[in-house]
Each structure stands twice: as structure tokens, then as C-alpha cells.
């Protein structure tokens, strides 16, 4: 592991011939498979800080009524999500933890990309917290790991971006000359796997399902040029 | 042609399966904290017994086969101790 991180030298190919060697003191090369693992080792540090803060009662996570389960933070790679009760102590602790983590790890937190969302919290408290943390103001349907949190997935408007995406994809394929069999394979393998991530979490409304089926059929039977033809349904 | 609705239902059924198969994960603890210990009972019942504060996600999971539909999941899954 040490030789990977502190590799001695590297040379660059210019027009096929190697240049003189460059001495690297330390640091991973770009695209090194070790990089995500090293990142996780560092990101776990933040998790440890949070856990410790909860243990010494500096931070109060989200409690479920009548239960001991307490959720204070969620992490997925570089995506971090802190949940807590709205109190001045929590805001203080978060700021101190983030700054401490920045100093200790050398990672910089982009406060412009971070946002704070209040659920049933008074606005004057939220304004104070925004100013104190210097982060942007979030609103409730927000995106976490690609999914919209807090949106009503029974409304077809929630699904409209996905339908539009599929529509655009199909339009770009329409110009290519693909055989009928090719179009079936394309639909089954590519088009139907785009929404799988959404479908694994949310039940799609019937309206959206009908829209998708129509898109598929028009592509399958319309083919080149996107003209409408009769859709033979078994 | 793959029916995308069936894909949807089967992916949601996977949540039920993962709830029934014993493992202690955070999302499961959260669900138990919110809906109570009899969470798998709720899935086995024929009636749609969910509390009023249930999220629409949870309602979808409990009522996977739809109102008046055939409860295929419970008839196919057998508990063996």
C-alpha cells in the first residue's frame, strides 16, 4: 500500500516515446482503484466524530416516538446527510465538527453545495441557522442519491423528468436505421433499464406506465423517421 | 417485450422479502421504530392494516397487489422455522 501511495517516479508517453521520469513524492495516481477506499477511510472519520458527539450528548439525532432508535447521520461515499432536532446546540456542534473535520482531513466542504432543510421548524430559527452555517436554503422535495425525497410519487408530475429523459433518448435513436429485432433488444436492454433505480423504490402510477408503454410501442413500430404506424399488440 | 410494470412490482416485492429475511440493518430498525414490532404481521395480514401516519411508500409495500387483487406474495412465501 505504501508503494502505491508513495510511488517513486512516473513517466509520460508523448507521441509514443516516453519522456523523462517525473518524481512523485506522494499521492495516488488519477484513476487508481485504491482511491475510493482511501476516501472511505477518511469519510469514516466524520462518521466517528458524529457517533462520538451523540454519545457525549453534544448532538441529538432524530428520535422515533416511543423507541430507542436514533438516527444522526447517513453517509454514502461523499454524500453526507445529518439529521437532528432543531436546537442551537446541534447547529453549534455541526459547525464545530465540520470545521474540525476540515482541519484534520484537509478535505474542504463546499457550503454552497450543502443545504439545510427545516421540517416543521420556525423560520426565524432556520434563518439563524442558515446565517450561522453559511449554507444554502433547501426546500422539501430534495434529491438524495438521485431520488426525490419528500415528493409525492403518486403524482405523474414527479415522474415527468424520467418520461422526458426516455423520450429524448428515443428521439436520438430514431434517426438510426435499426432492424425490428434490433429495436426490441434496444428497448429491452437499454430503455427499460434506465428507470430501474426509481422503480426499485417507488410504485409507478398507472398513468406513467401507460405513457411509457406508448413510448415503447411508438418506437418499436414507428421505427425510422418516427412516423406512426399500426401497433400490433399480441 | 418486458413489461415495466411487472419489473416495478417485483423490485418492490424485494423490499418485502428483505424485511422477512432476518438481518439487522438500519432501514429495518427505522421501520420497526415507526410501525411497531409486528411489522411482518402487517405484511402477512389480508386486510390493509397500516397506521394513518404511514408513508405512501409503506402503503405501497403492504398493499403490493392492489386493492381487491390477488395476494400472490403471501401465498407464495411460506415461513419455516
The largest contact between protein chains, plus residue counts on each side, is:
A-B, 25 and 19 residues
Report the C-alpha radius of gyration of chain B, rounded: 13 Å
- Shape field of chain B: globular
Work out the strand percent of chain B. under 5%
The secondary structure category of chain B is mainly alpha
> What is the overall shape of chain A?
flat
Biggest β-sheet of chain A: count, sense, barrel?
A: 2 strands, antiparallel
Report, as a whole number of angstroms, the end-to-end distance of chain A. Answer: 59 Å
Summarize model confidence as the mean pLDDT of chain A.
Answer: 79
Oligomer: heterodimer
Low confidence ranges of chain B? none
Helix content of chain B: 55-70%
Tally of separate helices of chain B: 5
Strand count of chain B: 0
Helix content of chain A: 40-55%
Instruction: Detail the poorly predicted runs of chain A.
Output: none
Briefly note the structural class of the backbone of chain A. alpha+beta
- Beta strands of chain A, count: 12
Amino acid at each position: 500500500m505504501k508503494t502505491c501511495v508513495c510511488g517513486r517516479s512516473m513517466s509520460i508517453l508523448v507521441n509514443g516515446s516516453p519522456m523523462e521520469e517525473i518524481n512523485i513524492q506522494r499521492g495516488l495516481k488519477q484513476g487508481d482503484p485504491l482511491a475510493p477506499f482511501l476516501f472511505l477511510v477518511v469519510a469514516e472519520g466524520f462518521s466517528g466524530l458524529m457517533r462520538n458527539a451523540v454519545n457525549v450528548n453534544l448532538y441529538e439525532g432524530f428520535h422515533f416516538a416511543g423507541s430507542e432508535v436514533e438516527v444522526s447521520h447517513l453517509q454514502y461515499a461523499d454524500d453526507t446527510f445529518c439529521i437532528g432536532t432543531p436546537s442551537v446546540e446541534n447547529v453549534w456542534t455541526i459547525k464545530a465538527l465540520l470545521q474540525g473535520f476540515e482541519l484534520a482531513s484537509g478535505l474542504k466542504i463546499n457550503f454552497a453545495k450543502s443545504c439545510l432543510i427545516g421540517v416543521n421548524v420556525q423560520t426565524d430559527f432556520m434563518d439563524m441557522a442558515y446565517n450561522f452555517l453559511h449554507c444554502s436554503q433547501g426546500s422539501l422535495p430534495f434529491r438524495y442519491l438521485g431520488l426525490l425525497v419528500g415528493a409525492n410519487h403518486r403524482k405523474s408530475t414527479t415522474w415527468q423528468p424520467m418520461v422526458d429523459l426516455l423520450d429524448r433518448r428515443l428521439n436520438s435513436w430514431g434517426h438510426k436505421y435499426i432492424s425490428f429485432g434490433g429495436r426490441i433488444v434496444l428497448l429491452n436492454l437499454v430503455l427499460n433499464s434506465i428507470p430501474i433505480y426509481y422503480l426499485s423504490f417507488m410504485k409507478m402510477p398507472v398513468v406513467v406506465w401507460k405513457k411509457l408503454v406508448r413510448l415503447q410501442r411508438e418506437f418499436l413500430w414507428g421505427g425510422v423517421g418516427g412516423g406512426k404506424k399500426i401497433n400490433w399488440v399480441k | 417485450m418486458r413489461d415495466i410494470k411487472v419489473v416495478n412490482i417485483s423490485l418492490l416485492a424485494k423490499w418485502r422479502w428483505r424485511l422477512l429475511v432476518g438481518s439487522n440493518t438500519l432501514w429495518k430498525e427505522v421501520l420497526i421504530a415507526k410501525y411497531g414490532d409486528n411489522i411482518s404481521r402487517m405484511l402477512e395480514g389480508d386486510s390493509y392494516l397500516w397506521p394513518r401516519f404511514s408513508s405512501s411508500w409503506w402503503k405501497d409495500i403492504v398493499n403490493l397487489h392492489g386493492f381487491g387483487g390477488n395476494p400472490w406474495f403471501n401465498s407464495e412465501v411460506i415461513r419455516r422455522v
